[in-house]
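Troubleshooting log. The previous structure file for this entry was overwritten by mistake, so regenerating from the original sequence record. Sequence copied from the archived sheet and checked twice against the printout by T.R.
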Amino acid sequence: MHYIKKSFEGRGISEDEKFNLEKRLQEITDEFIEEIEALGKKKEEELMQI
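Regenerated output below.
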């Protein structure tokens, strides 16, 4: 995120590119959060069986 902001401020990328990169970064972050939550739930279920 920091790199995107600095590139935009330095005129390395356009506002549209900045928006698209931020959106994609958020999508990736959300995907990983979902995966981590699923793994946590699976582990919790495993522990409840013991």
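The radius of gyration is 18 Å. Archived copy saved in two places this time.
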